[in-house]
Structures are given as C-alpha cells and as structure tokens.
Amino acid sequence: MRRPPTTQAFVLDELRRSIVSGELSPGQPIRQDTIAAGLGVSRVPLREALKTLEAEGQVVYQPHRGYSVAELSLADLLEVYRMRELLESEAARVATERLTDADLTRITDAGQDVEKAAEDGDLVAMIAANRRFHFALLEPSGMPRLLRVVRTLWDATDAYRAVYYNSGTNRARVRREHEAIISAAENGRAEDLIHLLAEHRDHAVDALRGTIGEEGQSGPGE
To answer: What is the bridge-based pairing of β-strands 59-62 and 66-69?
Structure first.
C-alpha cells in the first residue's frame, strides 16, 4: 500500500485504521508517546491528526487526561445518519442523471471489492471498499461542497460500521442491498435509488440500536 503524501496524513490513516479494527477501542486512552514511537513519527503530526479526529467526533479531549477514543453513541449515530439522508438523497438524485459507463464500472468494481472483503472477513478492507462504492455513486453529482460535508459525516461513523460488519448476517445483507442499488443506478431509476439507499442506512441503524443503544443512552454511526 502506498504511503500517504505527508506524515500527518499517514498518521491520520493509521489512527483511523486502529479505531476501525478495534485496536483502539471506545473509551480507550490514546498514549501519544507509545503511538508516535510505534509509527516512527514525532508527536507533532500525531497531535495534528488527533485534532482532526476530535473535530470529526472520533476522539475526545479532556484537560489533564488527554485524548481517548470516543464512546459509541446512538444519539450521535442517529443525528449523523439523518444528515446523510438529506444530503445523499440530493446528490444521488442529481448523479443518476449524469452516470456514465465509466462511473457504472467504478461502482460495480467497488461492489465486487466489498463482496471479496466480506467473504474474507476483512472488516477494514470492507469499510474502505464500501466507502468507494457509495462515493462512486455520489461523485457524478458534481457537488463537491456537499460531498465534503458527507465525507466528514462518514469519517465520524467508521467505528460504527466496524460493529455492524462484524456480523455475518449484516455482511450478507450489505451485499444484497448493493446489488439492488447497482441495478437502480444502471437503469437510471433515481427515486428507486434514493429509496434503496435510505433502506440501506436504516437497516444499519436498526441493527446497531441493539448493540449500542444501552451504551448510548448517556452519551451526547452504512
């Protein structure tokens, strides 16, 4: 895998991977000296990466205690997914009218990557491929400002996806739903695509309610 162009980007990618894979679990303190030494970097790019993750809600900072991984919160998940529904529906509606054969190939290829990762049980690879799949659908909308906000929302909920994908039943459901989404995109059925994407998100939230609902009661998310 090619290393990101800057040290800060490299550190940010590694921290994201550690959170998604569960190496850094919800509520776990982040030992900056240990992580910096393990990555072979100074604490400067590590601090900058942590500020980015804090802005996304993936880590929290407490005076005199430092950074820790954010606890999973049902309230946070519901808010983020509601925002995604509003923004992604608009992007999907516009994108459907602009999809080219090259766009459809990218969507299909990403879907196949999701399937392979699901079969291998590789949650990190599945999350990355799933992200490529969804943004291949949305990027043809030509709405870069809207998509920047959507990317931030996705960044904030990767840890939730790891929990969702940990179930073989959920992985199989994702694959089936992706097939229907691809069919709607290929046939230019914008309203069907929007409906299928909404169901796709709702199924993830419903599955996660039982997993994080009780934990998220006291807190402030496919």
So the answer is: antiparallel
> Do 165 and 112 meet the contact criterion of CB atoms below 8 Å apart?
no
End-to-end Cα distance, the chain: 25
Q: Nearest-CA neighbor of 193 among 78, 80, 81, 98?
A: 98
Among residues 159, 180, 173, the alpha carbon closest in space to that of 202 is found at 173
Of 39-48, 78-87, 154-163, give the lowest mean pLDDT range: 154-163
Whole-prediction pTM = 0.82
Residue type present at position 59 = V
Interatomic CA distance for residues 110 and 19, integer angstroms: 23
Q: What is the largest CA-CA distance in the chain?
A: 56
Provide the residue type at 78 as one letter: L
**Euclidean distance between CA atoms 39 and 86, whole angstroms:** 38
b/e string for 140-158 if b means 16 or more Cβ within 10 A?
A: bbebeebbeebeebbbbbb
Contact (Cβ atoms closer than 8 angstroms) between residue 62 and residue 27 = no
Q: Of 57, 45, 13, 20, which Cα lies nearest the Cα of 163?
A: 20
For residues 221 and 81, is the Cβ–Cβ distance under 8 A?
A: yes
Angstrom distance (rounded) from CA 75 to CA 51: 22
